[in-house]
Amino acid sequence: MEQKDDIYYIEKVLAGQTNYFSYIVERYQDVVFSIALKVLRNRDDAQEMAQESFIKAYKSLSSFKGTAKFSTWLYRITYNNCISELRKRKIHFASTDDVDLKDEAEEVNLDGIPEENRAKAIKEAMDRLPEDEYTLILLYYFEDQSVEEISKVTQLSESNTKVKLFRARKKLYTILNEMMKDELYTIL
Protein backbone atom coordinates (compact mmCIF):
# COMPACT_ATOMS: atom_id res chain seq x y z
CA MET A 1 0.00 0.00 0.00
CA GLU A 2 2.78 2.43 0.96
CA GLN A 3 4.59 1.75 -2.31
CA LYS A 4 1.45 2.48 -4.37
CA ASP A 5 0.78 5.68 -2.45
CA ASP A 6 4.32 6.88 -3.06
CA ILE A 7 4.22 5.88 -6.73
CA TYR A 8 0.92 7.72 -7.20
CA TYR A 9 2.38 10.97 -5.86
CA ILE A 10 5.65 10.52 -7.71
CA GLU A 11 3.76 10.11 -10.98
CA LYS A 12 1.74 13.26 -10.24
CA VAL A 13 4.94 15.25 -9.59
CA LEU A 14 6.58 13.88 -12.73
CA ALA A 15 3.46 14.84 -14.70
CA GLY A 16 4.00 18.47 -13.67
CA GLN A 17 1.81 18.68 -10.59
CA THR A 18 4.71 19.61 -8.33
CA ASN A 19 2.49 20.48 -5.36
CA TYR A 20 2.09 16.71 -4.78
CA PHE A 21 5.71 16.56 -3.64
CA SER A 22 4.56 18.13 -0.35
CA TYR A 23 2.91 14.77 0.48
CA ILE A 24 6.28 13.07 0.19
CA VAL A 25 7.99 15.71 2.30
CA GLU A 26 5.31 15.52 4.98
CA ARG A 27 5.40 11.74 5.06
CA TYR A 28 9.17 11.35 5.37
CA GLN A 29 10.42 14.58 6.95
CA ASP A 30 10.71 13.21 10.49
CA VAL A 31 12.82 10.19 9.55
CA VAL A 32 14.97 12.14 7.10
CA PHE A 33 15.63 14.75 9.77
CA SER A 34 16.29 12.06 12.39
CA ILE A 35 18.89 10.34 10.20
CA ALA A 36 20.57 13.66 9.41
CA LEU A 37 20.58 14.72 13.06
CA LYS A 38 22.11 11.48 14.25
CA VAL A 39 24.84 11.55 11.61
CA LEU A 40 25.63 15.28 11.78
CA ARG A 41 24.91 15.77 15.51
CA ASN A 42 23.80 19.36 14.98
CA ARG A 43 20.16 20.41 14.72
CA ASP A 44 20.74 23.30 12.28
CA ASP A 45 22.98 21.22 10.03
CA ALA A 46 20.44 18.37 10.13
CA GLN A 47 17.59 20.69 9.11
CA GLU A 48 19.66 22.04 6.24
CA MET A 49 20.69 18.54 5.15
CA ALA A 50 17.10 17.31 5.32
CA GLN A 51 16.05 20.17 3.04
CA GLU A 52 18.93 19.44 0.68
CA SER A 53 17.96 15.77 0.62
CA PHE A 54 14.40 16.58 -0.40
CA ILE A 55 15.63 19.03 -3.04
CA LYS A 56 17.99 16.40 -4.43
CA ALA A 57 15.23 13.79 -4.37
CA TYR A 58 12.88 16.18 -6.18
CA LYS A 59 15.45 16.97 -8.86
CA SER A 60 16.32 13.28 -9.28
CA LEU A 61 12.77 11.96 -9.05
CA SER A 62 12.77 10.90 -12.70
CA SER A 63 15.69 8.57 -11.95
CA PHE A 64 13.70 6.67 -9.30
CA LYS A 65 13.06 3.30 -10.93
CA GLY A 66 10.65 1.84 -8.38
CA THR A 67 12.64 -1.39 -7.99
CA ALA A 68 12.99 -0.64 -4.26
CA LYS A 69 10.74 1.29 -1.92
CA PHE A 70 10.80 5.04 -2.38
CA SER A 71 11.66 5.44 1.31
CA THR A 72 14.81 3.34 0.81
CA TRP A 73 15.84 5.55 -2.10
CA LEU A 74 15.17 8.74 -0.12
CA TYR A 75 16.99 7.50 3.00
CA ARG A 76 19.96 6.59 0.80
CA ILE A 77 20.07 10.14 -0.56
CA THR A 78 19.93 11.54 2.98
CA TYR A 79 22.58 9.19 4.32
CA ASN A 80 24.92 9.88 1.38
CA ASN A 81 24.46 13.65 1.72
CA CYS A 82 25.30 13.49 5.41
CA ILE A 83 28.35 11.29 4.92
CA SER A 84 29.56 13.60 2.14
CA GLU A 85 29.15 16.57 4.45
CA LEU A 86 31.11 14.81 7.19
CA ARG A 87 33.89 14.00 4.75
CA LYS A 88 34.04 17.63 3.70
CA ARG A 89 34.48 18.56 7.34
CA LYS A 90 36.85 15.63 7.88
CA ILE A 91 34.94 14.46 10.94
CA HIS A 92 35.63 10.85 11.92
CA PHE A 93 32.57 8.70 12.16
CA ALA A 94 32.56 5.67 14.41
CA SER A 95 32.27 2.13 13.14
CA THR A 96 30.58 -0.73 14.97
CA ASP A 97 33.81 -2.67 14.50
CA ASP A 98 35.40 -0.36 17.11
CA VAL A 99 32.81 -1.26 19.74
CA ASP A 100 33.63 -4.04 22.20
CA LEU A 101 30.45 -6.00 22.86
CA LYS A 102 29.76 -9.04 25.03
CA ASP A 103 29.19 -12.31 23.19
CA GLU A 104 25.70 -12.92 24.54
CA ALA A 105 22.75 -10.61 24.00
CA GLU A 106 21.34 -9.42 27.28
CA GLU A 107 17.60 -9.33 27.68
CA VAL A 108 15.94 -6.18 28.94
CA ASN A 109 12.67 -6.48 30.79
CA LEU A 110 10.67 -3.30 30.19
CA ASP A 111 7.32 -4.83 31.18
CA GLY A 112 7.18 -3.07 34.55
CA ILE A 113 7.74 0.36 33.02
CA PRO A 114 4.73 2.41 31.88
CA GLU A 115 4.43 2.78 28.10
CA GLU A 116 5.31 6.52 28.06
CA ASN A 117 8.48 5.87 30.08
CA ARG A 118 9.39 2.93 27.85
CA ALA A 119 9.41 5.12 24.76
CA LYS A 120 11.49 7.72 26.57
CA ALA A 121 13.99 5.10 27.79
CA ILE A 122 14.36 3.60 24.32
CA LYS A 123 14.83 7.04 22.75
CA GLU A 124 17.44 7.98 25.37
CA ALA A 125 19.29 4.69 24.83
CA MET A 126 19.20 5.10 21.04
CA ASP A 127 20.61 8.61 21.37
CA ARG A 128 23.66 7.06 23.04
CA LEU A 129 24.38 4.88 20.00
CA PRO A 130 26.87 5.99 17.35
CA GLU A 131 25.15 7.37 14.24
CA ASP A 132 25.64 4.27 12.08
CA GLU A 133 24.12 1.97 14.72
CA TYR A 134 21.32 4.45 15.39
CA THR A 135 20.51 4.53 11.68
CA LEU A 136 20.37 0.73 11.45
CA ILE A 137 18.03 0.43 14.46
CA LEU A 138 15.85 3.31 13.25
CA LEU A 139 15.43 1.90 9.76
CA TYR A 140 14.88 -1.71 10.82
CA TYR A 141 12.62 -1.33 13.84
CA PHE A 142 10.90 2.01 13.39
CA GLU A 143 10.71 2.27 9.60
CA ASP A 144 10.22 -1.46 8.95
CA GLN A 145 12.96 -1.54 6.33
CA SER A 146 14.23 -5.00 5.38
CA VAL A 147 17.89 -5.96 5.68
CA GLU A 148 18.10 -5.77 1.89
CA GLU A 149 16.69 -2.22 1.88
CA ILE A 150 18.99 -1.14 4.70
CA SER A 151 21.99 -2.54 2.86
CA LYS A 152 21.05 -0.35 -0.10
CA VAL A 153 20.78 2.73 2.14
CA THR A 154 24.07 2.13 3.94
CA GLN A 155 25.92 0.50 1.01
CA LEU A 156 26.88 -2.43 3.21
CA SER A 157 26.53 -6.03 2.09
CA GLU A 158 23.43 -7.79 3.41
CA SER A 159 25.53 -10.04 5.64
CA ASN A 160 27.46 -7.05 7.02
CA THR A 161 24.15 -5.25 7.61
CA LYS A 162 22.88 -8.24 9.59
CA VAL A 163 26.04 -8.38 11.68
CA LYS A 164 26.06 -4.65 12.39
CA LEU A 165 22.33 -4.67 13.16
CA PHE A 166 22.87 -7.55 15.58
CA ARG A 167 25.73 -5.67 17.27
CA ALA A 168 23.69 -2.47 17.42
CA ARG A 169 20.78 -4.34 19.01
CA LYS A 170 23.10 -5.92 21.59
CA LYS A 171 24.61 -2.54 22.37
CA LEU A 172 21.14 -1.02 22.74
CA TYR A 173 20.20 -3.83 25.15
CA THR A 174 23.37 -3.19 27.14
CA ILE A 175 22.64 0.53 27.33
CA LEU A 176 19.03 -0.11 28.37
CA ASN A 177 20.17 -2.58 31.04
CA GLU A 178 22.63 -0.05 32.45
CA MET A 179 19.94 2.64 32.44
CA MET A 180 17.52 0.33 34.26
CA LYS A 181 20.19 -0.61 36.84
CA ASP A 182 21.04 3.07 37.38
CA GLU A 183 17.36 3.93 37.76
CA LEU A 184 16.82 1.10 40.23
CA TYR A 185 19.95 2.14 42.17
CA THR A 186 18.75 5.75 42.49
CA ILE A 187 15.33 4.58 43.71
CA LEU A 188 16.88 2.38 46.39
Automatic annotation (TrEMBL):
Cited Gene3D superfamilies: 1.10.1740.10, Winged helix-like DNA-binding domain superfamily/Winged helix DNA-binding domain (1.10.10.10)
InterPro entries reported in the protein's UniProt record: RNA_pol_sigma-70-like, RNA_pol_sigma-70_dom, RNA_pol_sigma70_r2, RNA_pol_sigma70_r4_t2, RNA_pol_sigma_r2, RNA_pol_sigma_r3/r4-like, WH-like_DNA-bd_sf
Origin superkingdom: Bacteria
Residue span(s) of domain RNA polymerase sigma factor 70 region 4 type: 121-172
MF term (GO), any: sigma factor activity
Positions of the RNA polymerase sigma-70 region domain: 24-90
Pfam entry (one): Sigma70_r2
UniProt-listed GO biological process terms: DNA-templated transcription initiation
Transcription keyword on record: yes
Keywords: Sigma factor, Transcription, Transcription regulation
Record has Transcription as a keyword: yes
Family as reported in the entry's similarity comment: Belongs to the sigma-70 factor family. ECF subfamily.
Name of this chain's protein: RNA polymerase sigma factor
Natural source organism: Maribellus luteus
